[in-house]
Design a protein that fits this description.
Layout lengths: L1 E2 L8 E3 H10 L12 E9 L3 E13 L8 E4 L3 E6 L12 H6 L14 H18 L2
Antiparallel strand pairs: 1-6, 2-5, 3-4, 4-5, 4-6
C-alpha cells in the first residue's frame, strides 16, 4: 500500500455529486461500501495481479444508500495484489474441495508498487482534486 497525500483528505461533499464525478472518470464503488463507509476504486493495472487507486470515504450525514448523504473523503492510496502463478500451495484434488476452494492464495497480497503506477496514481488524484474541489 502506498499513501498519496492529497487535498481530498477530510473534504466533505455530497455522495451523489462525488459518485457522478468519479464514475465519469472511470472510478467505481459498486461492491466497496457498507452503510457508513466505502471506497472509490480505479483499476490502474491488472497484468500479473492488480493495482488500484483507492479513495476511502465515510458517511457523516445519512447512510450510503440514500441520495442526500454527505461524505468525508479519506487519504487516497495505491493497493497492489500479485496473483500466484501455477498451483496453489494448498491445492487439494476432488470434486468437493474443488467446488469449495476455487481461488488460489495470493502470491503477495500487499505487493510492491511500481514507480510508474505511483506517478499515474498521483496524476489521477490531482484530476479528482480539480474535479471535486472546484
Amino acid at each position: 500500500m502506498k499513501l498519496i497525500k492529497s487535498k481530498l483528505e477530510n473534504q466533505l461533499c455530497a455522495l451523489n455529486e462525488a459518485e457522478e464525478v468519479m464514475k465519469s472518470m472511470g472510478f467505481s464503488y459498486g461492491g466497496n461500501w457498507d452503510y457508513d463507509h466505502g471506497y472509490f476504486d480505479y483499476k490502474i493495472d491488472d497484468e500479473i495481479g492488480y493495482t488500484f487507486l483507492r479513495i476511502p470515504f465515510k458517511a457523516v450525514e445519512g447512510e450510503l444508500d440514500k441520495k442526500d448523504t454527505v461524505i468525508q473523503l479519506g487519504e487516497p492510496f495505491l493497493l497492489s495484489h500479485k496473483y500466484q502463478i501455477g498451483l496453489d500451495d494448498n491445492a487439494e484434488t476432488g470434486n468437493l474441495s474443488g467446488s469449495l476452494n476455487q481461488f488460489s492464495e495470493p502470491q503477495d497480497p500487499d505487493a510492491t508498487i511500481d514507480k510508474k503506477w505511483i506517478g499515474i496514481g498521483k496524476e489521477l488524484v490531482q484530476k479528482v482534486e480539480t474535479a471535486l474541489l472546484k
